[in-house]
Design goal:
Chains A, B, C, D: GO terms for molecular function: argininosuccinate synthase activity; ATP binding. Chains A, B, C, D: Its EC number is 6.3.4.5. Chains A, B, C, D: Homotetramer. The structure is a homotetramer. Chain A is built from twelve helices and 14 strands. With about 425 residues, chain A is an alpha/beta fold. Chain A folds into three domains: about 150 residues, 3-Layer(aba) Sandwich (Rossmann fold), CATH 3.40.50.620; about 180 residues, Argininosuccinate synthetase, chain A, domain 2 (Alpha-Beta Complex), CATH 3.90.1260.10; about 30 residues. Chain A has a five-stranded parallel beta sheet with strand order 3-2-1-4-5, with helices on both faces. Chain A has a five-stranded antiparallel beta sheet with strand order 10-9-8-13-14, with helices on one face. The longest helix of chain A is centred in the C-terminal third of the chain and has 25 residues. Chain A starts with 10 loop residues before the first strand and ends with a helix. Chains A and B meet through helix 5, strand 11, helix 9, helix 10 and strand 13 of A and helix 5, strand 11, helix 9, helix 10 and strand 13 of B.
């Protein structure tokens, strides 16, 4: 409570959820920094009402003109989630990056508001041991290099849940009953996924308890009959489910519902954080898991091998950039340019079967199909593929290997 | 039938399954090339008896000393399948390379026999439109650069099923009743997988018919209760199931049984062949699918981030080498050296839940765990991770981005 | 001479230099294929007059409307050479790809003419053992998949220089005196480079004889005083020398002159051909060698590290695509999109010293410099770099290594 | 001077050069930390006597048993420089990493001494703005995760040359006359290179002044006659010059002399530091520059294309690891395993011409040559390469491109 401000700040834009923790941060900013606080609350599909956040901000003394609330769901899915899915992006072979991909957008909005209201600082509620602080702050710095960043969890002296609660009580911050004790795990959620980590999840040898799951039904209790759907793609992005056109966020929401019902998208993972340690998390990405399968499905008939293999080679690096928080960087934009270039004809329809935890592609078709039988006929009455070509193809591919073999023999290797 | 031999050959080693097609090839070699035929029949776990092949070879006039039959299952799994799984290898994001990985071993054995019996040629039964001809022949050439290769499907004039049957009848080759007509799809099988392609599978918009599956039960009819197992790894390879030590082939067989029961490992895929066209295949890799999940699981706690990310970056290239048939090459051996180096401490136990098509890792533990909480404590009473370090870490990672941001501002970009 | 046409062709567009070899091909097409021949002669800066080619084509019976002559120098440099140099492209660490980069343009023009005149075939004069046949034909096929390709060197029965000369004489093709015997080496030239290979160059242990060099003066006899020049870049491409604006081809020509004078750009190389064997070549790329050094120089102050390192990682793959002839492919276009994206601010001036075989960058400046001292100051009176940040930066980068070290110690590894 | 020790330290191993700066550090450690100081002075070929360092350490109160002096030249070249050159390693396309590669070895020795004498800390003299602090400390932490690191330049209050000199005078540290003022640039040197940076080099638009060069003669005044030498390689490492076998350090020294004489190995570079900013340096790597050319030369005839291209693709990443200080990491060891695997037959002789700044390969020969004409003949009287193979090779490589072309046409793209 006797924290001294580390920097001189006049006005700060706080990423404010309306929850207890960011309310404590809000108050701490006022009391420690003595600066004007601007709150920014975004709807990224986390599944919570935003208006209570406004009421709470007012209650905590924020001027109405300093309260910003925005529905970012469409922008989030259209400009962040879908571009990432164009690359079939997974981190460490499995993780769909649901948390990582949301941070740059929140940071971007905070900086925009800071420019608008003339704030000289921004503040986030990420802890000092995780990746999110990095993602927020790299984005802040990239977009406004002279910004001051306040990271309360790295600065304050509040060392325990008890101290936090005491601080809240002292400053008359309302405390929901179930927030007094330590949560058995912490959650981050948006339209793409919910992630859970900490406490009950910390022993990676122990199964994730049932009560941790919130976005997916248990595969075992999911319907006994598969659900079959189609997804239509245009230039690499999904545009319709079962033939019904939808906006990006609406579509992802619909896939989430389908995925939830069929127990799809659970991932129990030990991953490597950018800050250097391993952590165990549980991710639920119902719609994203279906989308990844579907996107690979439509690419399988519309994307050329050269483009597809290059994408596969670039992907791990691209995923790492997003995971580590390097979204607003030249290298990410370079890879995005390459990836987007490849998606020009990734257009068509994929049929999937959803069943008890799995999403299987069972059919794909496209006016741009490179599989289409007719395509391989180039001349009237003639098929392009001649068996005899294979011999020359093999023999020239083998030439260097034969030379190596000859050396081995000659030199007795 | 009036085929003229393309090359001068005295003795040829034929990869002989005992089936109708390779029996026709056997006879065709005798009649067209007029050369001595040596048959090689291998057990790679395809699920067929080998002794009937011997009987049939004798029947077709092969001298007993020219009949080679070998059980390669352990060598196949130990020296080909497991090394490949150390890299978490998938082709085009999904295919576990069950066919590709078997070809180099068969080719190697043929060449060894050729050296032993003084044969000047080898022969395989792969068609002229697929990848297998490439895989066989690149391996032949790499191991014995002066070998002559006979690829009947690229050479003969037998243009239809009818002609093949006629040829068989003329040469008194026994024909099973169900082999007279054209098969609705063709199958390749070994201990790692069964693949199906052709005919009924050729329209990629149509679901794979139920009767095509042979190695996996239908997930929908699979047990309603999950099966939980453990797999123990040593240096990257699985060595025990539920604590019971097994040889490589025995272990893979046991995983196959578990996978089959739970409907695990089906893959309906449109892939890009090395010879240039797209093809649609259905793969069943029950044990391999479980193994991939388990291997990623044990790596997640025992492999350092630097090693893990490097492996992920190298993998697509490594997979392409195997798919394209470049197993016996310096570049594959280079990558293998890197991959094997990484597996020194990939030792421990993974717990998995198998259920209706899915294999989920639910726990992992290891004496070499890098996750172990105690490990991150370096000094007595002190934890290595200091929140304050994060600020410097972020600020230096951001430095170049801030410089870029400053340029943008200064130049009005 | 009794060659039978391999395909049915009505009209063919021949890449025609006007030299003896392509004149023989012209006649051979007429006599063997009995088809109408359209000649295409391009100026890519090879240093030969084009009008004699027209006269010769007329002499050999080509109708005036079937003779196409085009000056492609600007297009060649602007759309092929410069884009390639944006990537600092070298094949196998050294080769500037002077021959490779010209082939796609010639092929493209041939196809355009074929479309225009309604030709059903194209023909080139590349031999059957080199890379150029591949580069021509991959481009032909990519741009017009139903085109028929005639590759005389792979088809005809002319097996020796004598037979070629005899054929020429029989068909009254004029033969320059010095073309009767076999050349001691063969040359390919354009505005970017001259390459020499064959005969006297075939023993890679022997130094290239002096008389092989044509585009560069001997460094030993080059001026004893260095030449200092500046090159200005805009968005990654050179636009001026010593402050004087020039068109792409004019500029490259001027750099060639400067390079020639100072003995710059010789390369004696054993390289790996796409068709499988090693070959020894000697390349002279005077202007290109200067340009590569200069481009790296301007990038060094204008390109961010993330972009620069990504470019370096992508380059070998990009170079291989060009060398192998895959210019008109989705994967090359993807990489080009990434590379071009990186060049937006690669603008500024580089000073170079040219001296007896070397081109050294001795200065670089740019309005977009990321080096500029002022840039690293972000706040009034404050410098962005704080020494104390380094500690946190190092400690978090070291965290995983400390964990590994701890494991080693704990396990006695 | 009133610095407070940041950590509790009993005994520290200092990387001690014997120069003024590390003498000041030595004293500062004694006075600030009040701990026992152990000095470690290594000969890495920097060109200075070591015994004066011993005398000075004694003078400054170090106990004889706490003074460690070691000649590391052979170990440095054999175990660090040569392995790095096997990869043809250059950072950002040009820099031969002379400073970077020395740091891990010094760090390793310090840690070994710390273990031996029971020290709990190590100390280096690198500044807080450069890469070397990172390289030292990552190595320290990797090799002994519980070590305490003292980085005086990040800790003390000595803010100017004047304060340093005052501190030295107060503690009776001998000060050479020319060390009183600020040096016009700073130098780091070892057997591989000398690097210069700072002050007079800080403006990247200005040419490096002549007096900065110390390891190379001016190319303009270098001999007017080329020097021709041969270098013999065994398994990727150089073993003899002009047929004379030499130890690693002796050989590199001899190459340095040859390079110096001919003005070879100067590099004026703006590079990207790991800590985030650009810096301008001047490097002199005479022997290394010759070695790089020679190694590429011997690889050009002994290394297969597959291995060579893979090496080229891996190199930028490998170079970055070394530059950033990640030598003792699993990922560097993985790449080293791959690289070393490739060098098994990189054995033979290269002839080079050295002349006024350039080192040109003019010949190469090897008993393991893959170029050897005879090798490409596989059968008696027959050459392996058949022109007709090229057609099939091209046609199958073109197949996917033709399919793409057909799609374009069909869809009017």
């Amino acid at each position: 409570m006797a924290d001294k401000p580390k920097k001189d700040v006049k006005k700060v834009v706080l990423a404010y959820s309306g929850g207890l923790d960011t309310s404590i941060i809000l108050k701490w900013l006022q009391t420690t920094y003595g600066c004007e606080v601007v709150t920014f609350t975004a709807d990224l599909g986390q599944g919570e009402e935003l208006e209570p956040a406004r009421a709470k901000a007012v209650l905590l003394g924020i001027k109405p003109e300093n309260i910003f609330i925005e529905d970012l769901r469409e922008e989030f899915v259209r400009d962040y989630v879908f571009p990432m899915f164009r690359a079939n992006t997974v981190y460490e072979g499995q993780y769909l990056l649901g948390t990582s991909i949301a941070r740059p957008l929140i940071a971007k909005k905070q900086i925009e508001i800071a420019e608008q209201v003339g704030a000289d600082a921004v503040c986030h509620g990420a802890t000092g041991k995780g990746n999110d602080q990095v993602r927020f702050e790299l984005s802040y710095y990239a977009l406004k290099p002279d910004i001051t960043i306040i990271a309360p969890w790295r600065e304050w002296d509040l060392r325990s849940r008890e101290q936090l609660i005491a601080f809240a009580e002292m400053h008359q911050i309302p405390i929901a009953k179930d927030k007094r004790g330590e949560a058995p795990f912490s959650v981050d959620a948006n339209l793409l996924h919910a992630s859970s980590e900490g406490k009950v999840l910390e022993d990676p040898s122990q199964e994730v308890p049932d009560y941790v799951y919130s976005r997916t039904d248990d595969p075992v209790t999911a319907p006994d009959k598969p659900t079959v759907i189609t997804i239509d793609f245009e230039k690499g992005d999904p545009v319709a489910i079962d033939g019904k056109k939808m906006s990006p966020a609406t579509l992802l929401k619909a896939l989430n519902d389908l995925g939830k019902l069929n127990g799809i998208g659970r991932l129990d993972l030990v991953e490597n954080r950018f800050v250097g340690m391993k952590s165990r998390g549980m991710y639920e990405t119902p719609g994203g898991t279906i989308l990844l399968a579907a996107h690979r499905g439509i690419e399988s008939i519309t994307l050329d091998r050269g483009a597809g293999h290059l994408k596969d080679e670039l992907m791990p690096n691209y995923a790492e950039m997003i995971y580590n928080g390097f979204w607003f960087t030249p290298e990410r934009e370079m890879l995005q340019a390459a990836i987007d270039k490849s998606q020009e004809h990734v257009t068509g329809r994929v049929t999937l079967k959803l069943y008890k935890g799995s999403a299987w592609v069972i059919g794909r078709e496209s006016p741009y199909s490179l599989y289409d039988q007719d395509l391989v006929t180039f001349e009237e009455g003639a098929v392009a593929y001649d068996h005899r070509d294979a011999e020359g193809f093999i023999r020239l591919n083998a030439l260097r290997l034969r030379t190596l073999g000859q050396r081995k023999k000659k030199r007795g290797l």
